Amino acid sequence: MNISQHFRSGYVTIIGEPNVGKSTLMNALLRQKISIVSPKAQTTRHKILGILSTEEYQMIFLDTPGIMKPKYMLQEVMMESAASAIEDADAVLFMIDATKPEEPEHGEAFSKLKGLHKPVFLVINKVDQINKQALLPMIGKYSKAFSFKEIFPISALKRDNTNELVAAVAQLLPAHPPFFPTDVVSEQSE
Questions:
Q1: Measuring CA to CA, which residue among 47, 43, 40, 42 is closest to residue 64?
Q2: How many Å from the N-terminal Cα to the C-terminal Cα in the chain?
Q3: Dihedrals φ, ψ of 160, to 5°?
Q4: For the stretch 142-176, what's the b/e string if a residue is b when 16 or more beta carbons lie within 10 angstroms of its beta carbon?
Q5: Helix (H/G/I), strand (E/B), else coil: 140
Q6: pTM of the predicted model, to two decimals?
Q7: In what order do the strands lie in the sheet with 120-125?
Q8: pLDDT tens digit sequence for 149-171
C-alpha cells in the first residue's frame, strides 16, 4: 500500500446501549466478522480492535460493551473499559436502535456524551425496520439534546449508508501514519 503524506489515522469508538448493533456495524465496516453478534446483551466484554485501512486512512475501531448501570463487579469493569475507549477516541459513533427509540436523556450511554470535546456522530441503526416517517422526529429529539457532528440513519446488517458514515469520519481523523500494518484487520487472535 502506498502511504501518502496526507494519510489520516485515528481511533473511533462505537458506543450505545446493549443490543443496538455496535458489533454488527463494526463487522459491516470491516466486511468480515471480528465481533461476536448475538441477541444476548453484553456479549462484547472487551474493547475489540477492528482496523479499516485504505490508501487514504486507517480507522481503528473500538467496539465497547453496551453502556448500562453496572449491577455487579464484571459489569463495573466493562463500563470502565467503555469509558477508557471513549477517552482514547479521536471520534465517537453514538449508536441507537431505531426500533426502540428512547428519550436521549434517559439513556445511560447518552450520559457518557456530556462534556466530550471530540466529534460525535449519531448513528441511527435498523432504519430498514421502521416507518421512515418516524425517523425525522427521532433525529429532531437527538439533535436538540446534543450537538452531533453529523447524523447517519443506517442499516448495519444491510450496510445501508455505512460507506457515507466512514467517509465522514475519515475526514476528521488526524494526519498521521498508520498505527498498524495496513494488511491487519484486528489485534484479536482468530
A1: 47
A2: 24
A3: -70, 125
A4: beeeeebeeebbbbbbeebbbeebbeebbebbeee
A5: helix
A6: 0.83
A7: 48-53, 57-63, 8-16, 91-97, 120-125, 150-153
A8: 999 999 999 999 999 999 999 99
